[in-house]
């Protein structure tokens, strides 16, 4: 898979993350840390409202160079190292941290309408895919919309502060002929998706959302407003790569494919 690695700069660690990372203070000193998300939809980055981590997943903070470090799974760090994304040939892990304390961390999501967004929990984040960090675009991803809606309904249950989700609404990014400009909320309504646990309906909705946006979608936000998604996608990606806010991240798919196949 040819992913775009999105660099989400940490602006302020949550209190639990500060506590968890205190023991690594020397290693992290002077480093800017980015949560990195692997996406197939760079053209939707304007609509990022938050990012997701798996609360029970294990993450590491890996040195990129003298100034930068990436937070992702160890598996992703190994892939990155093979793709020469790190300055050093060896993998340098600066810290270990679980997903749950990262929740509540304030980050900057490149191109997002919202200047800063929060890290939130998502039970269905796969450790075996991408970086284990998922950027969230509830306008165009049914999984993201369903999860964000769950969190808004029951912040106490999910152990989050209401302020981390309040006011972060889906933004119209792509106009589609059959589902309007907020395709994910629309599909969740049509498919009667009530929570992130409605797996089968969510899988169907995702399939439709991918196809509809790619083959029939037209951008209705940002620099490429009015441009077909097919044409805008590589252009937005190029802009992100050029500004240094993203990088090319590839994933060998063989294992996952053979298991599901
Ligand atoms: C932003 C985005 C916006 C995404 C969208 C999708 C959509 P897929 O769906 O299997 O082809 N993702 C990445 N890593 C993980 C993970 N570890 N666990 C769970 N989800 C993950 O895989 C690619 C997409 O799945 C990625 O693209 C990411 O969400 C998510 F509007 O990034 B995407 C209709 C989908 N729309």
Description:
This protein is an alpha+beta fold and 261 residues long. It has one domain (2-170, 229-254): Isoleucyl-tRNA Synthetase, domain 2, CATH 3.90.740. The chain has 9 helices and 12 strands. The strands form 2 sheets. Strands 1, 2, 3, 4, 5, 6, 7, 8, 9 and 12 form a 10-stranded mixed β-sheet that branches. It has a two-stranded antiparallel ribbon with strand order 10-11. β7 and β8 (117-121) form a beta hairpin. The longest helix is centred in the C-terminal third of the chain and has 18 residues, at 199-216. It is globular. The mean pLDDT is 96. Bound molecules: ligand ZZB. Ligand ZZB binds at residues 38-41, 44, 125-126, 129-130, 132, 134-135, 137, 140-141, 206, 209-210.
Give the topology.
Elements (H helix, E strand, L loop, with lengths): L1 E11 L2 H7 L3 H4 L3 E8 L10 E4 L4 E6 L4 E5 L1 H9 L10 E6 H4 L3 E3 L8 E5 L11 E4 L5 H12 L20 E2 L7 H8 L8 H18 L1 E2 L9 H14 L3 E5 L3 H7 L1
Helix pairs in contact: 5-6, 6-7
The protein binds ligand ZZB.
Name the features.
ten-stranded mixed sheet, 32% helix, globular, two-stranded antiparallel sheet, 261 residues, alpha+beta, binds ligand ZZB, Isoleucyl-tRNA Synthetase, domain 2
Query: Low-confidence parts lasting 5 or more residues at pLDDT below 50?
Result: none
The number of distinct helices, counting runs of at least 4 residues, comes to 9
**Oligomer type:** single chain
List each distinct ligand once.
ligand ZZB
Can you tell me the CATH superfamily? Valyl/Leucyl/Isoleucyl-tRNA synthetase, editing domain
Question: Radius of gyration from the CA trace?
Answer: 18 Å
Question: What is the CATH top level name?
Answer: Alpha Beta
Percentage of residues in helical conformation = 25-40%
Strand proportion, as a percent range, falls in 15-25%
| CATH topology call | Isoleucyl-tRNA Synthetase, domain 2
